[in-house]
Amino acid sequence: MRxxxxxxxxxxxxxxxxxxxxxxxxxKVSLRRLLSKLxxxxxxxxxxxxxxxxxxxxxxAGRTGTRCDDCLDDDLADDVPIDRExxxxxxAGIALGRSLAIVLDDMRPLSATQIVSTWALSEDxxxxxxxxxxxxWSFPLVGDALTIDHLSRDPDPEIRAAAARAAWVRRAKGxxxxxxARLSDDPDPRVRMVARNAR
Length: 199
What we know:
The protein has 199 residues and is mainly α. The protein has 10 helices and 2 strands, in the order E-H-H-H-E-H-H-H-H-H-H-H.
């Protein structure tokens, strides 16, 4: 029952009122959660997993041999921004990069390439930095030269410097399609120094 109060104008509503925003904010994944998932994946591919399987522990549903590619979830495969909490962007990228390198080393080539390409094309600079740091480690990856070339053109100088280090590490296997030569003339002095010392 509607009651109009004396002295106040009557309320008129043309459309339903909602408290939800038109574009809800994008969810984030915490750095801790991402590092935990990468650690769990690394453990499923290590010597611990076959030993646990011998003891009767249930294997990961998607594991084939020592690989656990089907255990990947949306946090790893999607482009969800990372909530770093109090950790700096560079430190978060280094920590994620090392964990990512361990996992990528034992993944199937297609799954590894999917994660690397998704993270390299991400809008989140922490994911791009993590991939650049992961590529500084030596492991087989389809399309590593293209990824390094793409990351070497990133607007963030920290990512370009990591791409220069990755190009230097992978140049024996064709991972440097002119990246070091181009980055040796980079506007950022840190990137120039890394590229020139690597040549």
